[in-house]
Amino acid sequence: MNVYDAMNKLCQGIKETHEYKMLAEAKPKLAADKSADDMVKDFLKQKQEIEIAQYQGQKPDDAKVKKMQDLYNVLQLNPVASNYLQAYIRFQMMITDLSKTLGDTIKEVLD
Questions:
Q1: CB of 14 within 8 A of CB of 20?
Q2: Dihedral (C-alpha) 42, 52, 99, 36: value to the nearest 10 degrees?
């Protein structure tokens, strides 16, 4: 078995998933709404900063968490932004699961 061929098949399989298709469909709609696009980018940036802090063992700043939650609530009122975020989250969950599986396989040989 050639692992590069298998990876190409996996990538093609990802493109055929419901999660990928929904995100690919939502992305241009979000890009067409500049205000929503800017808010989503800001939200995702804030979310990433909080996740990095948690990964580093730090407690995220309560004010930052509140600001992110408030922005999320505002984004839920915009159907384009809400649809994109839902698709993004589902896609990220799938990729996280795949990454964990790959990581577990690699860990077997490294530990």
A1: yes
A2: -10
- The two structure tokens encoding residue 40: 């989503």
> Of 91, 109, 83, 96, which Cα lies nearest the Cα of 28?
83
Q: For residues 12 and 47, is the Cβ–Cβ distance under 8 A?
A: no
pLDDT digits (tens, 9 = 90+) for 70-102: 999 999 999 999 999 999 999 999 999 999 999
Q: Which residue's structure tokens are 């989503």? A: 40
Categorise residue 61: left if φ over 0, alpha if ψ from -120 to 50, beta otherwise. Answer: beta
pTM of the model: 0.86
**Contact yes or no for 101/36 (Cβ under 8 A):** no
Is the distance from CB of 85 to CB of 43 less than 8 angstroms?
A: yes
